[in-house]
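note to self: the first set is below, dont mix up w the second
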Amino acid sequence: MKELRQDVKDPKMKKFFDIPQEYYEQSQFLRSIKRNYLRFERLSEKQIESLKKTVEEFKQGINREQLKKNLK
């Protein structure tokens, strides 16, 4: 989690990654996307869309574990 605290230099992306810390703690996917951005300083359109969808699910109170249970 320490590496996720690095500053994002691009103002647009800084706002994009400004989501509650608890979301990062609960989601390996969100941590992975941010690590990739910090490493390569860019994201694909699919990564951006997936991150937006995941954050929206968290805002609605749906986490990945609940989604997995619902699929079974």
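second set (the one i keep forgetting abt)
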Amino acid sequence: MTTEEHIEGLEGWFQSWDDHDLTARPLVKIGGTYTIYTGRLNEVEVATLGRLLLGLPGARPDSMGFFHDSSGDPCFEASFEPSGLTVEGQALPEQWAAWDIAFRAAVEEAKLPRFPA
């Protein structure tokens, strides 16, 4: 189902940057934007997004924008931008996959508004 402010499904709403490389090893290079209407979120939706970021794999309890690997080393960060939620950094492939899937599922469950892909 597609509406003006929401798209069902988990595919098609991550816009990768040129340097985003999931084939790089041992760490994948992460760079892109999840096309969420960050500028249109109301207070409740902003709070919901903040809570879901803090609940994602590797989340630092003191910051909703920084994520670390299992040894505690920083690996990537997320930030609110006019175009959506951007992510940048590097991680083990399985860590990135777990984070990406968990984030998409949480946003879908919360029904946060997204740009059409």
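remember for set 2: The CA atoms of residues 20 and 109 lie 26 Å apart.
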